[in-house]
Amino acid sequence: MVPVLFVTVFGRGAARAADGDPMPTATPDLVKQATAPISSILQLRLQTSYAPESVDAHGQSNAFSIGLTMPLPEYRLLPLPQLSVLTVPTAITTPDGSTGFGDLRFLDIVVLDAGHKVIGGVGPSFVFPTASKPATGQGKWQAGPAAAVAYSPARWLVGVLAQNPISFAGDRDRAHANALFLQPFVTYQLGAGWFVRSQPTMVFDWETGRQLLPLDLGAGRVFKIGRQNVSCFVEPFWNASTDGPAPRYGVTFGLALLYPNFWRQE
User: pLDDT tens digits for 209-227?
Assistant: First the structure.
């Protein structure tokens, strides 16, 4: 569904708005917020990752998720700003053809310095065992530390997001979970809302010693449809190293609705 939306919206947006006027240009700050893993603006993100071939498994796979970035200004809950992300994996299709709901994930980062080009933060990361099938989740309640740092000079956005959820309860027949998810991110703006980006999510499983090291490079654009800010991207990926069943290569499509003035509307 997202690839279809991506082609339709992205193709129209690249030329003119619905009323025939030239497409409004996104501000550099809005592009940075749209492409960052965690953001200080409200966003509704739809994303799907399709892999036609997997390692140690036969068949195609796909993961469709809905994400919501939920920034909280200072003193809304804490004296410091918070950047939260809720990820709902609504349809996980494994190589054997089964499809189910995945484990819900929640991340909350407390920003320690929000007034300079270099910002960072720390907070908790949670995983909830909401999967509808054993193959689409881990069956464990998990919690652990998270941290992020970002540098944003001119057209660049460079940073890293790290999470290490650890299981503490859940299905006793399922394996204990303890893995580091390391996500470096780089975005360069080309102008007029266009950008190139890379956001591979590396996984280091402390329990099994397995690792997943993907490489990716994508492109997209932030623009307006009427009054609605929209971000679209397409990002091919290839797993350079994997020690277990995982996609060999694939492509990720993303579509996000951006609401930069959400808190100002109050």
Answer: 999 999 999 999 999 999 9
Can you give the CATH number for the domain in which 85 is found?
A: 2.40.160.40
pLDDT at 8 over 70: no
In a domain, 114, yes or no: yes
* Residue 266 placed within a domain: no
Dihedral in degrees, nearest 10, Cα atoms 35, 181, 215, 223: -10
- Tokens describing residue 19: 């009323």
SS3 at position 205: strand
Residue identified by tokens 């299709």 is: 93
Beta bridge partners of 212: 203, 242
CB 121 within 8 A of CB 108: no
Residue 14 confidence (pLDDT) above 50: no
Domain membership of residue 20 (yes or no) is yes
* pTM for this predicted structure: 0.87
Strands 179-191 and 166-170, bridge-based pairing: unpaired
Domain residue limits at 49: 2-261
Number of domains present in the structure of the chain:
1
Q: What is the mean pLDDT of residues 164-169?
A: 98
**Which residues are within 8 A (CB) of 66 and not within 5 positions of it... i.e. 6 or more apart?**
44, 45, 46, 87, 88, 90
Identity (one letter) of the amino acid at 39? S
